[in-house]
Design goal:
Layout: E1 20-24, H1 28-41, E2 47-50, E3 63-65, E4 68-70, H2 79-86, E5 91-95, E6 103-108, H3 113-118, E7 126-131, H4 140-147, E8 154-157, H5 162-174, E9 179-184, E10 200-202, E11 205-206, H6 207-217, E12 222-226, E13 239-241, H7 248-259, E14 264-269, H8 277-285, E15 293-297, E16 308-311, H9 314-324, H10 330-335, E17 339-343, H11 356-365
Parallel strand pairs: 1-5, 1-6, 2-5, 6-7, 7-8, 9-12, 9-14, 12-13, 15-17
Antiparallel strand pairs: 3-4, 10-11, 14-16, 15-16
Length: 367
């Protein structure tokens, strides 16, 4: 069958992001107060709150950074813009009296019973039920709806919201993207004059094989980034062909996100013959999923190393946007984004071998 458009893996987003909750069934004032409290409580995560206004506002929505104030005129916003914005955040809290979200925190409020019932079709995944007027009887339709869903919801009252906040915290932790590794082996190796990934420095292993086993020793499954048309059988792990031709490492990273946009990618160049398990574990242990990336920096370096780094899913869109500005170096993204830096005490694990002279110096270490 002819397929007009290439098949692509879509990220597992709701209406906005990966972890989102609509608060529904009580007053907007009460829900928005809780949204602000929870956003402050989980300030270590990137949090977005979404609400609605009861009347038209005379000026467009605005963005403020320090003293710089942006007022964009956007009268054509749609559901795809919601997701383009929301996927950059760890937690999205939505005023469900105005807009739906993937999971719901339902308030049983006598004063708003009719409002809640009008929105019962939006209650597709009830995360929690909060009794506003004490442990009053729930409407029968809500009991039935909650019993039909996968997990029993957290049930509590307005005077005891800590279990609900704890539940949101657990949902955030369980939503941390899984980690995969990408070994970059698709370069031309023009300075070396031979494939750097197939060089053997010790133990009879090529560098691609050594890095693959290094990742496995740290509990991370690895894939190999290769040029289109490369023989996959020549590698010890699944390959990911580069679909952004001529874009270097940035294209390889984007190609990995094309295959799995819900994973965080640990990116390793294949010209790091002295990279060891301890350094890799230090990077993984320092991972900050709420940032765009986690990267190492050597003691003699001003900038982070872009090819010994973990890129979170939110970095995908940002990397593409940097490409539209004409910047294809991943280091440019790291320098100009919120990242976690791991400062190393030793430069040796970051040693590159890109030329025959550098290769021979490294080999002399193992003689």
């Amino acid at each position: 069958m002819h397929q007009k458009h290439p098949k692509m893996t879509r990220p597992a987003l709701g209406h906005y992001g990966r972890t989102e909750f609509a608060l529904v069934g009580t007053t907007c004032e009460r829900m928005e107060r809780l949204m602000a409290e929870w956003a402050a409580r989980f300030a270590e995560y990137r949090c977005l709150t979404v609400t609605g206004e009861h009347r038209d506002h005379p000026t467009p929505a605005s963005i403020r950074y320090g003293r710089k104030h942006f007022t964009p005129g956007m009268d054509d916003w749609n559901e795809y813009d919601d997701r383009l914005l929301g996927q950059d955040y760890d937690l999205v809290l939505v005023n469900g009296n105005h807009y739906p979200a993937k999971r719901q925190i339902v308030f049983v409020d006598e004063a708003k019973a009719a409002t809640l019932e009008r929105r019962k079709e939006q209650l597709t995944d009830i995360f929690a039920i909060v009794h506003v007027n004490g442990p009053a009887a729930m409407p029968e339709w809500l009991k039935t709806l909650a019993s039909q869903q996968h997990c029993p919801p957290i049930t509590t009252t307005m005077s005891l919201l800590e279990p609900l906040a704890d539940g949101i915290g657990r949902a955030l932790k369980s939503g941390v993207p899984r980690l995969r590794a990408l070994i970059l082996a698709g370069g031309a190796s023009s300075r070396m004059g031979e494939d750097k990934g197939q060089l053997v420095y010790r133990n009879g292993q090529t560098e691609v094989e050594r890095l693959y086993h290094l990742c496995l020793s740290c509990g991370v499954a690895a894939s190999i980034s290769v040029r289109e048309g490369t023989d996959a059988e020549a590698y010890p792990a699944p390959v990911i062909p580069d679909r952004f031709l001529g874009m270097g490492p940035a294209g390889a990273i984007c190609s990995a996100f094309l295959e799995d946009p819900d994973a965080a990618w640990l990116v390793l160049a294949c010209d790091l013959p002295l990279l060891d398990t301890d350094t890799l574990r230090q990077l993984i242990d320092a991972r900050a999923p709420e940032r765009y990336a986690t990267a190492v920096r050597g003691p003699e370096r001003e900038w982070p190393e872009p090819l010994i780094a973990i890129y979170e899913p939110r970095a995908y869109q940002r990397l593409l946007r940097f490409l539209t500005l004409g910047y294809s170096c991943p280091r440019k993204l790291l320098i100009n984004s919120s990242i976690q830096l791991v400062n190393l005490d030793d430069m040796l694990p970051l040693t590159n071998a890109n030329t025959p002279e550098e290769r021979d110096r490294v080999r002399s270490i193992f003689r």
